[in-house]
Amino acid sequence: MKKQQFLLVSIALAAFVLLYFFGKTIPPKNPAPANATTQPTEHQHIEFKDLLAQAKEKISPAQNQRLLQLENSVIRGDVKEQQLHVYHQLARFWADSARIFEPYAYYTGEAAKLENSEKSLTFAAHLFLENLMTEGQPAMQHWLGENAKVLFEKAIAINPNNDSRKIGLGACYLFGNISDNPMEGILPVREIAQKNPNNLYAQMVLGLGGKKSGQFDKAIERFHIIVAKQPDNIEAIFNLAECYEGKGDKANAAKWYETVKKLVKLPEAQKELDKRITELRK
Fold it and tell me: Where do the structural domains in the chain lie, given as residue ranges?
């Protein structure tokens, strides 16, 4: 993995932790029914050109001049190879110089489509998916989900037997607001989990899907499977605590938040957990 790619993945994981510990992640008291669907609407549609225009407003004139040179550089020779090279340069520019995620992910995805290799397509797909899992805006969820979906589908076309990519594709349907039939994504993931209960990636996605739809008991079952195999999995433990809180089981919620607190090293997160535990035990 290239240095800038590793850094951005690390940033995404850090954002995930911050969202979980400082954001409101408990579902509403009256969650949507289990069979409810989220249908993409016209106001949820985002165009990359608009994201790019916003990003350009955040960089310096000198950076904009450099960017213009890159964007205009495909003019002759082997167009595909030249374009691939420029996409990589654009991705590096947005990652290293500008430090803005959306154009970095977009150009990484466009380069992956041209390369059309399992490795590049999967890496780019996970860039979008990791940010989708921490994104709260429906319009951005849709944009991230659609981009990840296309990349996962291309990777699966190369190797149809890869379960991890099928699970990633299912997560796009579950969390990306890209279909009025989320079951289209759930069923393949459920089949993988039934075939191999030790596939903890599948268990996690199904657990998160259950939590999102308010099916806390089902989600709790999934998270317990993960925690039994990985006792230090903070993501699974925190979701377990939230699901218990969501269903009104304050004692178990406090118990699992205590477990999270023992694993978390961030003082700010520990303070927030203390507050939540105190509230639950009143």
Answer: 31-181
Query: What CATH number was assigned to the domain covering residues 31-181?
Result: 1.25.40
Give the whole-number percent of the chain exceeding pLDDT 90.
71
The one-letter amino acid at 4: Q
Percent of the chain as helix, strand, coil, to the nearest 5: 75, 0, 25
Amino acid (one-letter) located at 205: V
State how far the Cα of 246 lies from the Cα of 31, in Å rounded to an integer. Answer: 10
| Euclidean distance between CA atoms 205 and 219, whole angstroms | 10
Residue whose token pair is 């890496």: 123
Fill in the DSSP letter of residue 32: P
pLDDT over 60 (residue 28): no
Q: Would you state the structure tokens that stand for residue 171, as one six-digit string?
A: 């997560």
Nearest to 153 by CA among 196, 130, 185: 185
Q: Is the dihedral of CA 3, 235, 255, 203 positive or negative?
A: negative
DSSP string, 207-262: HHHHHHTT-HHHHHHHHHHHHHH-TT-HHHHHHHHHHHHHTT-HHHHHHHHHHHHH
Structure tokens at 197: 């209960």
Handedness of CA 140, 145, 147, 148 (dihedral sign): positive
Residues 145 and 152: their CA atoms lie apart, in Å, by: 10
Residue whose C-alpha is closest to residue 252's, from 230, 220, 275, 225: 220
One-letter amino acid of 237? I
What are the pLDDT digits (tens) for 72-92? 876 554 678 888 999 999 999
Q: How buried is residue 251: exposed, middle or buried, by Cβ count under 10 Å (0-12/13-18/19+)?
A: exposed
User: In 3D, which of 96, 85, 112, 18 has the Cα closest to residue 59?
Assistant: 96
- Our CA dihedral for 13, 233, 264, 281, rounded to 10 degrees, sits at 120
